[in-house]
Structures are given as structure tokens and as C-alpha cells.
Prior knowledge:
Elements: E1 7-9, H1 13-18, E2 30-31, E3 37-38, H2 41-57, H3 61-76, E4 84-88, H4 90-95, H5 104-108, E5 114-116, E6 122-124, E7 131-135, E8 138-139, E9 156-163, E10 176-182, E11 190-198, E12 202-213, E13 216-227, E14 245-259, E15 262-276, H6 290-293, E16 306-322, E17 325-341, H7 347-352, E18 354-376, E19 379-401, E20 407-432, E21 435-447, E22 451-463, E23 469-480, E24 513-527, E25 530-549, E26 556-577, E27 580-596, H8 605-613, E28 616-617, E29 624-634, E30 642-651, E31 655-656, E32 664-665, E33 669-680, E34 692-699, E35 707-710, E36 719-721, E37 726-734
Parallel strand pairs: 7-10
Antiparallel strand pairs: 1-4, 2-3, 4-9, 5-6, 7-8, 9-10, 11-12, 11-37, 12-13, 13-14, 14-15, 15-16, 16-17, 17-18, 18-19, 19-20, 20-21, 21-22, 22-23, 23-24, 24-25, 25-26, 26-27, 27-28, 27-29, 29-30, 30-33, 31-32, 33-34, 34-37, 35-36
Subcellular location: Cell outer membrane
Main location: membrane
Pfam family, one: TonB_dep_Rec_b-barrel
Amino acid sequence: xxxxxxxxxxxxxAVLAAMTVLTPVxxxxxxxxxxxxxxxxxxxxxxxxxxxxxxxxxxxxDAMTVTARxxxxxxxxxxxxxxxxxxxxxxxxxTIPGGDNAGMxxxxxxxxxxxxxxYGQIHVRGDHNEVQFRLDGVxxxxxxxVFGQTLMTRFADNLSLSTGALPVQYGFxxxxxxxxxxxxxxxxxxxxxxxxxxARDYFFPSAQYGGQSGKWDYFFTADxxxxxxxxxxxxxxxxxxxxxxxxxxxxxxxxxxxDENTRISLIAGVSxxxxxxxNIGGQPMFGDNYSSLLPQAPGSSNLNERQKEITxxxxxxxxxxxxxxxxxxxxxxxxxxxxxSPDPNMGDLAYMGISQHAERSVMSTGTQSDVTWRVxxxxxxxxxxxxxxxxxxxxxxxxxxxxxxxxxxxxTGNGRTGDIYGLYVQDEWQPVRNLxxxxxxxxxxxxxxxxxxxxSPRINVVWRAWKGAxxxxxxxxxxxxxxxxxxxxxxxxxxxxxSAATDVSRSDTVKAERDHYFDAGxxxxxxxxxxxxxxxxxxxxxxxxDEGQFGAPIILSGFNYRRGQVNGYEFSTSYDHxxxxxxxxxxxxxxxGKDITSAQFNFDADDLKYISQHWIHLDHDQRWTASAGGSYxxxxxxxxxxxxxxxxxxxxxLRQDSDVPNGGVIPQYATFNMSVVQSFRDLFHSRFxxxxxxxxxVTNLFDHPYMLRSGTGVxxxxxxxxxxxxxxxxxxxxx
Length: 735
């Protein structure tokens, strides 16, 4: 039975409890006014829709009850009271075209206010990449993945995207929080193997398996991706030149339930990806006489540039409930590296004046603890802390021309060890029955390339003004350290009087961003299953952080605007009834900045001068963003349902240069995707083989060529175009 794709909840758990009857199926947990988490009717529905056979075959119902109660206790550790939350149930993830084969960013594009960019990036509410990912409530340190995605959609049992004025337990990256509740062996018993592929050499086998034995449960998934769409096409042609990619992913989860109040879990992941960088034909050489100096250099359409990305991480967590206290404490580590290999025939030197083997890596290790104390029915105190210790290493071996037109080699490299930390305390208070106030303080600090700290107050208010309605308003003071992996030292003196010399010799250190963030909105249930919401936000930023690609390696580098402003509004509606699900969103946003105050050597001197005196649009500013979708399941009460679904994404266009930096707009676009999935229960009449599923997915159904980037703009490296029509098919078998 098809369920709601996603729902929008700017509510506290206490508010959700009062609206249990009208809450859509993608809601996970409701909380009573006493602060105790209780299952809603939708919890049961999710279990049935997600894994009916696993539930039916379970031999340990008591273990499942303990698992569900501990899961609810963990969710209570980080409520998003007053924030705007878009929840994707397991059924919603399966319904989106591509299903579990879809990338995580493709899923998030279905939420309002999420703009699409190249290299798999997304921008939420006019911010650049300031999205934090959490696995079972534990924040992952940032990595170097630019166009590779470590986290697989099939590893998620459900996920949520939280935006707005976030409570104080969320720190560091605060444009949005993506919290992924992972699958486990208790509710996902058995295995599944699938083969998916089609156009452009797309070949995508995958497997997953989960189970339970006594107090242990486990879940593992792995896949391999081979295709010619690893990076966006640099031309509007149907096939990109030089765009082969190979990717390997593994994610695993093992848990041990000590008793009904104690659980230990380990999550681990590995990602290894190799990409060819697409070429742009017809490019002129860097200098007038380079054709004679480099006769062996290939044409720009025949360059052979490559990039490799590796990410490994692990999270070890202890969850414990003691009377009125619930806690989760975790230790984690993440290693991420990126390596760029230039054209072996000095093509980079011929067309850019520099050929460099570039490598960058970051190792992050830390701990996070969150505690909930239910003091009284109307007061719930939460407190905790996060600490990351990080090591960043950057090195490059570059070949350039000196003033005598001789090739010279220059080695650069540096490393830095630092830390970021944050601690918080907050009180969720219900002064009257229909009013919830969540207020608190957060203290953050960074000691890496910059040494700064800040005390940040935050407050959110949620009022259930009348039946089916919730109004919310909030203020958050934010402190965002510059991502360690996008800040690197550069000795500009080594490149003086060479073909890689810069127009600007200044390189101030990237600083932490400090924001005042305001958010308010209303949600109204019109009829059972149909809800509408409107939200507005405004951000005032000092030292606003942006990122750009400067040079051939696809490595993002950070810089600051001294002043920044971001504001906008969002509208969302959804309807879910029986086999029919519909949703629609649109958002308006404006993001502007003034005066670049760090990493100035990356920019043209005239651009720096203009931006120092004028407000400009940020390169990722998109005025209008919209998404919509629907699904209908035929024969949904039978054992052989047929599901048809479709989605749409619209963008009014990111920025490009005109007569002023970022003064132009890329043409608007709209793309449509569709999916048909046929399921067969017990097709082979074998007790070892369960559901068989056939699927057909079409991306960009009408084959509309559209541009994501024109190759111009502040910090924009090369042109990129969206994927042309792509037809993929697959078969999966559960056992």
C-alpha cells in the first residue's frame, strides 16, 4: 500500500501527540505531554508496509518490543521542536523513481527549498553545502566527497531533513540536518539481491542481509556502480565525453541489546570511487606559444584527467535508560581523501598553465553525548556535548612554466591538527496545554586554521492555536566553523613569476560564520490526509562561508563574505489516501553577500574590488525552486501490486556572470521522472524466496537538455548540464 512520500512537521513531539489521529504515515514517533514517547498508530503501519514478512516470521517479539522502545528513547534525545522537519518513511524512499538505487541527494531534492547543483551538491535555503548528516542521531564529521556519496539510500529505514531555527543540540553545520535511522536485523530479517542498469553502461548490482540471534542483530549492504554519468556532462550532448566511473560502497550495522534499558551498536562504512573528468572541446591553449612548447599535448576534447575519492568511517555507541534519564554516548572516526591526476601528456599545463598531482585528506575522530532528563511532566531538560579532533593534510606536485618558458616542478604541502567542540543545555517547557517553549544555550569553539568561539542562545515556540493547526516561531544564534577539509594553506611566493601566478597575492584565513536566524510558519490539516504549510525565514550573517572550485581538481575551497543575507519562504502540501499519494512544494529564496575577506588569491582583482563595495548574488542563489510528485498503487490489496509514480523538479537557475560577478541567471528548467514497479509475492512458491520485484525508471522523461552551471561565476569551475533521458531497469529478489 503506497504511503505518503514525505511530511512536513514544524512541531514538537508533544504537539504531534495531540495530532495523532491526523498525523500522516511517515511520522515516526509521537510524544505525550508528559514527555514519554509512545507509539502512534502510524508506527504499526510503517512496520507492516516496510517488512510485513519479516514481522510475520519474527521469532522474538519481545526483542522487537525492546528494540522499538529503545529506538523511541533515542529519538527523544534530539527532538526538532519548532524546526521544520520533512520526514521520508521507508515506503516513501521506495516510491521515489529509482527507489533504493537513487542517490541520497536525489531523495532530498523532493523536499521544499532544496536546490540542485553540479557534482551531486544540494543547497538548502540558500546556503552552500552546510548540511550535516547523522546516523541514528550521531553526527558524521565532514568528508571530502564532492560528487561521490558515501551513504546509500538502501541503508536507511527512514530519514528526515530538518531546517529552520534549530534547537541547540544541532551545531557546526546548520543549514539542514539529515538524520538517517538505519535498518536493523530485528525488523529487516532476510536478504535481498538486485541487478539494476541500462543506458550509458549503467550496471548496479547490490545486496543486503539482516538477521537476529539472541541479543545480537545485524544488517549489511553493499553495492557496485559502473556508469558513464559519474560527473555532470560539460556539454548538452546526449553522452558526456570521458565520463566513466566505478564506485564501491559498503555499510554495516551490528547491535547488542544487553537488557531492556541498554544497547551497544557499531556502524561502519567504506566508499571507494574513481572518476574520469569530462572534457570540453575547442578550448584555447593557455599561452600563444604553448603549442610549440608542448607539441605532444592532446586536444582539449581528448584530455585524460581523473579523480579518486575514499571514505571510511566507524561509530560505536552506547544507549542507556536509567529512570528519568536517557542517554546515548558515541565515539566515531572518519577518514576521507581525494586525489587528482592530471592529463599524463601535459594537457593541463597546455590549457591552464599548471599541471598538478593534488591530494587532500582529513582524519576526524571524536565523541558525542546526549542526555534527556524528564524532570516533570511539563519540563524536559536536555544537555550534551560534541568534540572533534581533526588532521588535515594537503600536498601537490605541480609543473609550471617560468619566465624563460622552461618547465619547473614545484612541491607544496602542509598539514594542520585542530579541534572543534560544542556543548549545550536546553529546557522543553509546556507552560499551558497548547503551548510548547524550547529554549537553551550552546557554546561552540574552533581551534584549527582559526581560533574562535561563541555563546549562542536559541528559542522556539510552538502553539496549537486551533484543531489541526500548529504555529511556530524561533530564533537561533549560529556559529559555523569553516570546514577543515576545504581550508588549506598556500605559499603563493613559490608560484610568483610562473604561468600559475595569481593576480592577487593576499590570502587571509577563512573564519567562522556567525548568524542571526529567524523562522516562523504555520501548518494546517485541511482534511484527514491533506495538510498545507507555509514557512518564512531570514538570516543575517557575518563572515558568511561560501565554497568554490578554483583550478582543474574538483576540490572545493572555502572563503568568506564579510556580510551576508539569506531570506525566503516555502509552501508545501501533501495528500495521502489509500493507494494514492500526492505532494507539491515551491520555495522562493534570495542569498547575497558583500566583500570577500579570505582566500582572496583565488579571485580576479577587478571582481574583488567590485564585491568589496557592492552586494552580489551568491553563485548558488536560485530564486525559485519547486518539486512535485505522486504515486498510485494498483491491486494494492493483492499479493501482486503495481505501483506507478512520477516526480518533477523545477529550478529558475543558479547564477552566472554578466557585466558584474554573479549578475546573470542560468536558464530555468523542469525535469520529470517516472517509475513503474511490479511486485510478486511468492512468485516461485518457495519458502526460501519471497517477494520478487521488477522496475522500470526513466530520468528526464521528455529529454529536456538543461544547464546547471555555465562555467562562469564566483568560484565556478566548468559548465555542467543535467542528465539527458536515461532508461534503467532492474530486478530484485528477497529471501
